[in-house]
Design brief:
heterotrimer; A alpha+beta; B alpha+beta; C mainly alpha; A: alpha+beta; three-stranded antiparallel sheet; 13% strand; B: alpha+beta; Alpha-Beta Plaits; two-stranded antiparallel sheet; 5 helices; binds iron/sulfur cluster
Chain lengths: 374, 206, 339
């Protein structure tokens, strides 16, 4: 009897696919349902962020573009950029501004993680947690809206300060939120995190060993999920993060192997709790008075210099490499995008898994295509 | 074997917990609103459609320069002596006819950067957010209040005035026999009266 | 029932058609209602309201409007598909689902066909749905559809086993395959229902319910369509009313397994209160409300649970459900022998 010959099937996942979180295209080589190889193709959302920045006639004008990189965590992007330019200009930012920035960045981290875990549930097939997460994210967006008038793309953190002072009831609103939110985390855990089916779907799937994670220069929850204890907020404190007490959450392999999808997921859930802690402390310490625009320069004309500044956004290490030629507009702005780097581990960890696992893995990396393609 | 039964138990138990959560939510009050009937209340800082109060605009072009996507187009014509445009409500004198003030709202990214540099605070972001159109071209808002004939008139006046100036200058330089660009320019400026804002300088030169 | 109809109608053939179309009177409004209910249940579980506008009160006519929209839609058939199979599959699917209603006793007076092998007939005829899904997936000439179709056949063939064994437990207890007879055996109060007559039948019911979820492709076993992995599974290329037919089939199937579940375990058309509220018309009421209850549970599960992976699906079936079902069958038989 002649031997039965089977063929591998190549299939395109995306750019129009419900679970590729935007317009990612993954070329899958399949043997039945088993993935032989997965090759991500990017660039469908390329908007020339870096080139645009060079043609701006002001450093300030880059900020709306920065917002649109990682559009679900715009505050964090602005913070990174503002810090980079401030370091070039050697500006001291007022105390109050620093506190507001930290509160905003941490609220943004919660909002972004909520989106990440919500859509992750969606990828795995659970619809309800997604909308529960959106319900709570809405409250954060409301705080942002009251501060700067926009809900998604804020243009709030400026070089040297903020666009507006926070409204007078800001502290109360934030306190309300940090009282409201922790019980909700329990709700997500009951509904999704500790569900047996969810654990089965994510534990031991897409295992990213720590060495591999480091070799690929992964960062953020992807790196911490693999058990590497590295968080820029603690390891290279920027702004005033050295004043707060918080734990860096790492994956421990509770449900399976260290570095599996469940670990990456639970790191996000627990990071939200830590963010709440930081916000609590920041709200207590925040000075009530102070001009948020005191240090905003009239003209931003940095000396001829280059700088690399990095911050911990919800998705990992976001770095800006800025070269100034001494003129009003930047000579070069390069973004080191955490998602782009994190996505590069996809082929390495998805070989040999099933199609459904690919969805779980992409979701657990938590990519935002706006930032990958820029 | 123990694991086998534990798995079964875990499945039923966690599913029951999850079902408990969803069941409780079944009777919660919904958090969504019925949008067109009930409109969400926007904050006073809401950044939506731009509004320009043309009475106050001095045509200084600051907003257009601040815009990162170049969606504001401003054209101005200098007002010549007999016409006095008065002052804005903030007290800045108006010296330019704003013949064109177009904002392409379709391009606008609602960043709000144009609002801050305006010397007369006449460009503002409002809380109007329902302004969709079937045709993209309808989203180019023309804020200039001047009719085409008025624009023509202003332009004609300015040209006539300039020609007069040039003629006057010519005769004066011929008299003085030391014509250079600089005094010409100065003469021109002094003819317009004194000015304080540097951007206006730029505008009139261009 | 046919005889009664024949008295009123001019031609016996007409009476037979009327007779056959009667379940339609229940199935169609039910589907419209169930789709609306599913939207509402999901919405309220997610702190939303769901459709509120169409038709006034809580958007009750939303599904009717949707159906009209679907009928009006362009009938798109992919150019490289197998046209005949592609067009035929949705009808075959609905045929399979509808044919099974023939032996469901809706009330003490109405049953489509008095088959002595009713339970067996249902199990056989519902497999046609598998065939149609396979046809749809293959004919679409789309790799996602094909994957979905292959998953379906694997899934339904596997889950047929525990379903059959669970049904067999009932048959062991009752000694008949005729669903009308099974229903009649449960007349009386709630304690005459089969589920309470034998503790192992309770386990059989749980097994039946789980595996029937898989049979009708509901979460957590909705792998054939699994919209977040396979885009739309076997229905990726379908649109308009053909897609609507699949939707109709899915909901009709849900009703079918729920009704079968209530016939086999929950007293069919019998009132739980003995003679109170019982009779042929009340029978329909009890039957449908028991069915709706299980449908609600299915929706509840769907909006709570994530989805299994295809290998885990097989694990659940072959490693858990089937061994337990067989052991349970033996225990049911033992209990029946002893008591
Ligand atoms: S809001 Fe921003 S994009 Fe819109 S006109 Fe003003 S500066 Fe330009
Ligand atoms: S900045 Fe203000 S005054 Fe100047 S052109 Fe713009 S709207 Fe007019």
């Amino acid at each position: 009897m002649p031997e039965l010959r089977t063929e591998e099937m190549t299939i395109n996942m995306g750019p129009q696919h419900p679970s590729t979180h935007g317009v990612l295209r993954v070329e899958l080589v399949l043997d039945g349902e088993i993935v032989v190889d997965a090759i991500p193709h990017i660039g469908y959302l390329h908007r020339c962020f870096e080139k645009h920045s060079e043609s701006m006639n002001d450093y300030q004008q880059v900020i709306p573009y920065v917002d649109r990189m990682d559009y679900v965590a715009a505050m964090s992007n602005e913070l990174g950029y503002a810090i980079a330019v401030e370091r070039m200009l050697e500006i001291e930012v007022p105390e109050r501004v620093e506190y507001i920035r930290v509160i905003m960045a941490e609220l943004q981290r919660i909002a972004s993680h909520l989106l990440a875990i919500g859509t992750y549930g969606l990828d795995i097939g659970a619809f309800t947690p997604f909308l529960h997460c959106f319900r709570d994210r809405e409250r954060i967006l409301e705080i942002f809206e009251s501060a700067c008038g926009a809900r998604l793309l804020y243009n709030y953190i400026w070089v040297g300060g903020l666009s507006h002072d926070v409204p007078s009831n800001f502290k109360d609103k934030v306190r309300d939120f940090i009282n409201y939110f922790p019980p909700k985390i329990k709700g997500y855990n009951d509904l999704l995190t500790y569900n047996k089916i969810f654990i089965d779907r994510t534990a031991d799937v897409g295992v990213l060993p720590p060495e591999v994670a480091l070799n690929y220069a992964a960062s953020g929850p992807v790196l911490r999920g693999s058990g590497v204890d590295w968080d820029l907020r603690r390891n290279d404190p920027y702004s005033i993060y050295d004043r707060f007490e918080f734990d860096v959450v790492v994956g421990k392999g509770e449900m399976g192997t260290v570095g599996d999808c469940w670990d990456r997921y639970i790191v996000r859930v627990r990071e939200m709790e830590q963010s709440v802690r930081i916000i609590e402390q920041a709200v207590e310490q925040m000075p009530d008075e102070g001009d948020v625009k005191a240090a905003v320069p009239k003209r931003i004309r940095p000396p001829e210099a280059e700088i690399y500044a990095r911050t911990e956004t919800p998705r990992g290490e976001l770095g800006y490499y800025i070269i100034s030629d001494g003129s009003m507009s930047p000579f070069r702005v390069k973004g080191r995008s955490p998602c782009f780097v994190n996505l590069s581990v996809l082929p390495a960890i998805s070989r040999g898994s099933m199609i459904a696992d690919i969805v779980a893995i992409i979701g657990s990396i938590d990519i935002v295509l706006g930032e990958i393609d820029r | 074997m123990k694991r086998y039964f534990k798995d079964i138990w875990d499945s039923f138990y966690t599913i029951a917990i999850g079902m408990g959560v969803t069941f409780r939510h079944l009777f919660r009050k919904s958090v969504t609103i019925q949008y067109p009937d009930i409109k969400p209340e926007l904050t006073e800082r809401a950044r939506n459609r731009l509004y320009v109060n043309m009475d106050d605009c001095i045509g200084c072009d600051q907003c257009s320069k601040a815009c990162p996507v170049n969606c504001i187009t401003i054209e101005t014509v200098k007002a010549v002596p007999p016409d006095d445009l008065g002052v804005t409500s903030t007290g800045n004198p108006k010296r330019l006819w704003v013949t064109k003030f177009d904002i392409d709202i379709a391009k606008c990214c609602y960043c709000g950067l144009c609002v801050y540099p305006c010397p007369t605070e006449c460009i503002k972001m409002t809380d109007v957010y329902e302004f969709s159109e079937f045709d993209r071209h309808n989203l180019v808002y023309n804020y200039s209040t001047m009719t085409p004939s008025e624009v023509e008139e202003a332009k004609g006046k300015f040209e006539k005035w300039q020609a007069d100036k040039a003629a006057a200058k010519k005769s004066s330089t011929e008299k003085k026999k030391e014509g250079s660009e600089k005094p010409k320019a100065k003469q021109q400026e002094s003819g317009e009266g004194k000015r304080s804002d540097s951007p206006e300088d730029k505008k009139s030169e261009s | 029932m046919v005889e009664t109809l024949e008295q009123f109608l001019p031609h016996p053939l007409l009476a037979i058609i009327m007779h056959a179309a009667l379940p339609m009177v229940i199935v169609f409004p039910y589907v419209l209602f169930a789709v609306w209910l599913e939207r509402k249940v999901s919405a309220h579980m997610q702190d939303r309201l769901g459709p509120m506008r169409t038709g006034g009160w809580h958007g009750w006519s939303q599904t009717i409007a949707d159906m009209i929209k679907m009928i009006q839609k362009e009938d798109i058939v992919p150019s490289r598909s197998d046209k005949f199979l592609f067009k035929f599959a949705p009808f075959l699917a609905f045929m399979g689902a509808y044919a099974a209603f023939a032996v469901i006793p809706f009330s003490s007076e109405y049953i489509g066909a008095h088959l002595d092998v009713g339970a067996f007939y249902i199990l056989a005829v519902t497999s046609v749905v598998t065939l149609s899904i396979l046809m749809a997936g293959w004919a679409s000439n789309n790799k996602w559809s094909l994957l979905g179709a292959m998953r379906t056949s694997a899934q339904i063939v596997s889950y047929e086993v525990p379903t059959v064994v669970a049904v067999l437990s009932v048959i062991v207890a009752t000694g008949t395959l005729n669903l009308m007879t099974i229903s009649e055996m449960q007349t009386g109060t709630i304690f005459n229902w089969l589920i309470f007559s034998n503790p192992f039948l309770l386990i059989a019911f749980v097994l039946y319910f789980i595996s029937s979820l898989a049979e009708v492709n509901r979460t957590p076993f909705d792998l054939p369509e699994s919209e977040s992995e396979l885009v739309g599974g076997f229905q990726t290329e379908y649109s308009g009313m053909r897609w609507g037919m699949f939707m109709l089939t899915e909901y009709a199937d849900m009703l079918l397994v729920s009704l079968l579940g209530s016939v086999l375990f929950f007293g069919a058309w019998n009132s739980p209160f003995g003679d109170f509220m019982s009779g042929p018309v009340w029978g329909v009421f009890w039957m449908v409300s028991k069915g709706m209850f299980f449908i609600f549970v299915m929706m509840w599960l769907r909006w709570t649970l994530p989805r299994l992976r295809v290998d885990q699906l097989m694990d659940v079936c072959w490693k858990y459900l089937i061994p337990i079902a067989f052991i349970n069958l033996v225990l049911v038989a033992l209990w029946e022998m002893l008591f």
